[in-house]
Amino acid sequence: MTSETWLVAGLGNPGPGYAHNRHNIGQMVLDELAGRIGGKFKTHKTRAQVLEGRLGIGGPRVVLAKPMTYMNLSGGPVAGLAKFYGIDSGHLIAVHDEIDIPFDTVKIKVGGGEGGHNGLRDISKAMGTKDYYRIRAGVGRPPGRMDTADYVLKDFGKDEKRELPFLIDAAADAVELLVTQGLDTAQLKFHGA
């Protein structure tokens, strides 16, 4: 593996009970990317499901990874895979749910705070840096006084489910654009001029 390889980690919780939760959108996006690559995830010794392939025609090599730990323990598998494949934080992308942006919105950033997201916090701790890319899939804020943890551990609402495929597709496009054309191009497309 060369340093040009990208590690794309789709965050979520393991098991069918969590599969359709807002908190698992990162893993839903990785399933979409796996479909584009045309492969199946395999169990890796780092407590993750992985798929190796290329994004885009002649695009860079990527390792898609779904940690099989709970969200707040995502760092171990991500750091283990980064070490195994020789990938530094400059080629790491975390795909995750984001309550601070509206549902159906995708934002891209590098570094910065974790905004209370325990999965990101654990990755930053395990990697020893906050300087990695994040594809932020907006799930919106909880209604009323609903607890944030309860909100992200619920499935998407009926209206949201109709729009969800578009959000997943857009977040997958953001990953693909980031690895093939770079941060500036990807941000221009998703953040506007």
TrEMBL record:
Q: Where is this site: Discriminates between blocked and unblocked aminoacyl-tRNA?
A: N13
Q: Name one GO molecular function term.
A: peptidyl-tRNA hydrolase activity
Q: Which GO terms describe its cellular component?
A: cytoplasm
Binding residues for tRNA, per the UniProt record? Y18, Y70, N72, N118
Which Pfam families does the UniProt record give?
A: Pept_tRNA_hydro (PF01195)
Oligomeric state and interaction partners are given as: Monomer.
Protein name listed in UniProt: Peptidyl-tRNA hydrolase
Q: Which organism is it from?
A: Paeniglutamicibacter cryotolerans
Gene coding for it = pth
